[in-house]
Design brief:
By secondary structure, this protein is an all-alpha fold. Helices cover 84% and strands 0% of the residues. It is elongated.
Length: 62
């Protein structure tokens, strides 16, 4: 995964635990998950709109 082995991931996880503390990790994960979900929702709703606009533009040109 991205050229990183298990040891690199464990070191990164340990650093995150030290910085944020074990109590904040669920809150941090939930916030990250919501952000990713919002991003996916925003990108998936824009695609059909752009497709419709492109079709309308092509019809006007013909």
């Amino acid at each position: 995964m991205f050229g990183m082995g298990i040891w690199e991931l464990l070191i990164i996880l340990a650093i995150v635990v030290v910085i944020f503390g074990a109590g904040k990790l669920p809150e941090l994960g939930a916030g990250l998950g919501k952000g990713i979900k919002n991003f996916k929702d925003a990108t998936s709703t824009e695609q059909p709109d752009k497709i419709e606009e492109e079709k309308e533009r092509q019809e006007k040109e013909q």
